[in-house]
Amino acid sequence: MSQKIFIIAGEVSGDVLGAKIMREMPDVEFVGMGGENMAAAGLKPLFPISDIAVMGVAEVVAHAKTLTARIRETADAIIAARPDIVVTIDAPGFARGVIKSLRKSPSGRELIAGGLKFHHVVAPQVWAWRPGRAKKYAATFDKLYAFFDFERPYFTKYGLDTVAVGHPIADGMDKYRRIAARKNDEKIITLVPGSRMSEVKKLMPVFRSAVEMLVSCGYRDYKFVIPTVETTADFVRAQTQDWPIKPELVPSADRYDIYARTYIAIVASGTVSAELAILHIPTIVIYKMNPITMWLARRVIRVKWVSLVNILLNKCVYPELLGPAATGENILECVRQLSLPARRRDIIADLTAADKLWHRDANAAQLIADNLRREISPHA
């Protein structure tokens, strides 16, 4: 009997990691939900990944009907597939909703009683806000794959088996780090508006304003590039049609080559800031949220910064422009600062000091795959 894993990735970064895990386990049948990367690895997604790539309280409420339907659909698909194990990657709210739906269903309870286990990849940042969530995760999942060693105690104290696997974005980046380390005369400013439609809609006007100001203030010779993802590519293309200086749009698959050659990046808060940190690229982090979500976040977040490199090093390496501060004028000033040779040297020195935080002897996908194989081998 072949081994079967039901896998769910809730957003683009999870889709990339999911594809890597699948390729580490070519003898295992995968079914479930993912994006273009997991589809290329052989998965037939149940529905578009954009249906569940939603962040923020107000945004989730606005998409509640779709999310509820997708949760039920996914739970039904798990019951029909009868997998050996369920692996969820990020999108913790969606993952917990699916498991809750299964536990309410007689057929789902039968599967669980028969030994179905739930493994979750990407530890929620309980050290940043609502540490009590760790207890809920311990009651929901059978195993958790965290990226950093310091995250483990938050979950093991509640009995959740937690494995630190290193950050997956560090895997396979050596080629691009070598490119980034070379001195070149390219003048590329990379713009990354995010992967969720809600955030892209808020940030594209900011990017347009920033580009117009940069061009009018001496950065006319620079090339502006936007890596696009499947969930928002058409929208970004339509939005940039009437920009006076049209940016070059490149597919997500080519993003690392662009990042490695970037002079300064201006990006939405998220995984991309860590990718650029690993490549030692000076970066400005911006973000806009629904005002209600922003108001709530300011009252529960326990850390000073939103970008991972700033949090890990406990200092402001990457300037952050959040909420009302995310304006073309402020971006222009940050670009001017990051163009100063001394400031660039300081940033790159800090990013170099962070290198040891990202890596393990084996890559993250391999470590996760090895754990999954040990879990399901008794069912072979």
How many distinct helices?
18
Write down the overall mean pLDDT: 88
String of helices and strands: EHEHHHEHHEHEHEHEHEHEHEHEHHEHHH
How many β strands by DSSP?
12
Helix/strand/pairing category: alpha/beta
Distance between the termini: 6 Å
Largest sheet: 6 strands, parallel
Strand content: 15-25%
Low-confidence stretches: 54-62
Rg, nearest Å: 21 Å
Shape: globular
Helix content: 40-55%
Strand arrangement in the largest pleated sheet: 2-1-3-4-5-6
Features:
380 residues, alpha/beta, 6-stranded parallel beta sheet
Structure description:
With 380 residues, this protein is of the alpha/beta class. The chain contains 18 helices and twelve strands. Strand 1, helix 1 and strand 2 form a beta-alpha-beta unit. Helix 1 crosses helix 18. It is globular and about 65 Å long. Mean pLDDT is 88; it is low at 54-62.
Task: Walk me through the topology.
Blueprint: E1 4-9, H1 12-24, E2 29-33, H2 36-40, H3 57-62, H4 64-81, E3 85-89, H5 92-104, H6 106-113, E4 117-121, H7 133-140, E5 143-146, H8 152-156, E6 161-164, H9 174-181, E7 188-192, H10 197-216, E8 223-228, H11 233-240, E9 248-251, H12 255-260, E10 264-268, H13 271-278, E11 283-287, H14 291-300, H15 308-313, E12 320-322, H16 328-338, H17 341-353, H18 364-376
Parallel strand pairs: 1-2, 1-3, 3-4, 4-5, 5-6, 7-8, 7-10, 8-9, 10-11, 11-12
